[in-house]
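**User:**
Everyone, produce one record:

**Assistant:**
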Amino acid sequence: MSYAGHVRAILSLGLPLIGGHVAQMAIGITDTVMLGWYGVAPLAAVTLGHSYFFVFFMLGSGFALAVMPLVSAASARGDEVAIRRSTRMGLWLSLAFALVIMPVMWWSQTILSALGQEPELAADVAQYLRIAGWGLVPALLVMVIKSYLAALERTQVVLWITLMAAVANGIVNYALIFGNWGAPELGLQGAAIASVTTQFISLLAIIAYARRALPHHDLFRRIWRPDWEVLGSVFRLGLPIGLTTVSEVSLFAATAFMMGWIGTVPLAAHGIVITVSGATFMVHLGLSNAATIRAGNAFGRGDRAHMRRGAIAVCALSLVMVALTVAAFLGIPEPIVGLFLEADAPARAEVIALGVTLLAVAALFQLVDGAQVIALGLLRGVQDTTVPMIIAIFAYWAVGLPAAYVLGFTFGFGAVGLWFGLVFGLAGAGIILMLRFWRHSIRTVGRAPA
């Protein structure tokens, strides 16, 4: 296949995945925007609450992400039994993880207070998480089935179900946060209820589709029966993926915690900019997922040349997105930040001023952020996850977090210094992971998959 053919194939597969990720991100954006209209304190609370929730969500998502390369490789070999076994055990592991983590959501106020957050902020965050935390169960199960469908190149339905969920979340948010249409005005609790409701609607919809569209896979027949061999395989592949992902997410969460030490206005500005940059990151994440699927397919067939051309094509597409994002962040920063705040918000001017500066720094790390997630997608496609986990943890926590603290507090650059620390951590990960793929992992293609 030519490079142009690879680009078309990646876009055909990746655009719905990108749309699905953006729609999923829209759920968090909706919470942030509407609570920003409701008040700066609720905005700060939901910013910290989302960061806390997503540390655990992304750790648990490793088992769902492991399903994607396993199903893709099995599909290339025509092994429907392996497809079913991998998906089922991904569901098992995801459900078990979500149930184990629930106490951490319930006792979040104690944990956050111990981490140095202000008592009022910790109480508000706990009020949100004691409800929103229950959404972890359906959210992880949905992610497994999405990975299964995406690996079979059924990405359109992933997009439509996620769009439906985003619309439902916005409607329920509007009713319950502000007390519209006769509903009670619940503020933070209303946003949490909306998120949980949305996740359960998504779960029911995606299960219904999988049963109807792919009845021959029979995913849910005797699902209670254990398959210890495959459960071990999914666990061994998925745990490093989860730890890799959570090491990055927790880097951003730790930055949010440190922003909380500086004050409410910096935390609110950080919340807006991290939401905006997170939305653009969803494009790279969608391309990364497409890279995993196509790399997994090439790995299953042992086609190294196909792998190489596809990897070059997906890297080029990521660079195009980087250029567009940098232009937007530097060209129209004030309208972007101002979208998240009411015109008469008391701290609007301060939040916008800091947000514009942080958005300029966010433009700088678009390149390295895109590079590291694309590299991870390619590495997962060839089922190389343990060494990339070590690389990521080192880059994010031994480089990024110390740099953020030193620049933010030791040298007194505050919020801007914290963001430059993110740049250093992501740059280290991007460079080393790309070298790992091109100099080592691609050479495994052509060997029999495990």
Q: What stands out?
A: Residues 3-444 form one domain. Residues 288 and 374 are 5 Å apart (CA to CA).
